[in-house]
Amino acid sequence: MNLARDVEAVERAVWQDMFAAAPAPFRDDAGLSHRRFDGALAIAAANIPDTQFSRAFAFGIDAPTDERELDNAIAFLRATGAPCWWLQPAPEERALIAAIEARGFNRTTRQWAKFVRRLDVDATVSTSLSVAQISAEQGDAFGAIVCEAFGAPPPLALWLKALIGRPNWRLYVASVDGVPVSAAAMWSDGDFAWYGIAGTNTAGRGRGGQTAVLARLINDARASGARLLVAETGEKQPGAVSTSFDNMIRQGFTVAYLRPNYAPPEQC
Fold this sequence. Notes:
This protein is of the alpha+beta class. The protein has two domains: 3-111 and 260-267, no CATH class; 121-226, Gcn5-related N-acetyltransferase (GNAT) (Aminopeptidase, 3-Layer(aba) Sandwich). It contains eight helices and 13 strands. The termini are far apart.
């Protein structure tokens, strides 16, 4: 098993399905588009200035990447009009990284940490919060938590709500006295699961909501038959606080690898 390829393939499946799920009004307003280039997936949100929604990744996981695939992905992202976007080669793709750098792309100072957790043991947590998988009726609360946590525009909640009930997806909230304060999503298919879209609102900070949601999600993924849970967050910087990074470490995740981000020369 090539761990990096499995991890990249899971992320590709998640984001391809997430973009496919976007309701038409939101998709058009946000300028969403996505396209496969051989193995690589390029996604773009022309009207959302956040690089997590505009990037190309999963190069070389189905077959060796050639420069045509790279150039096609670059041309696609430039044509979308997204204000900021990245190329994200896996660190083992040395020839690809050299080709990216030869095109004038600049490596950002912070990489993405790609996490894995093997699902051979349950997660345990002591909490007074209640955690539940949500239905469509609770979709507004889920979206509101995530939008507040990330400072995202409220219409993004329409996109997140569209994931409820979609095959392979489960969305969760943790509540204090019946009031939702933390949220997270899981995608799963066969041996693999993914954890993300996780956030806590201001009222819920410091209550352990993310820890509680993550423990529930881990155990549900294990019960579904998945063997490996995948996640990502920004690389932890020296002296900086990274709650999501630390929460995953506490719940048994390990960093599989650090993936670099490359910005095009016109953004630097």
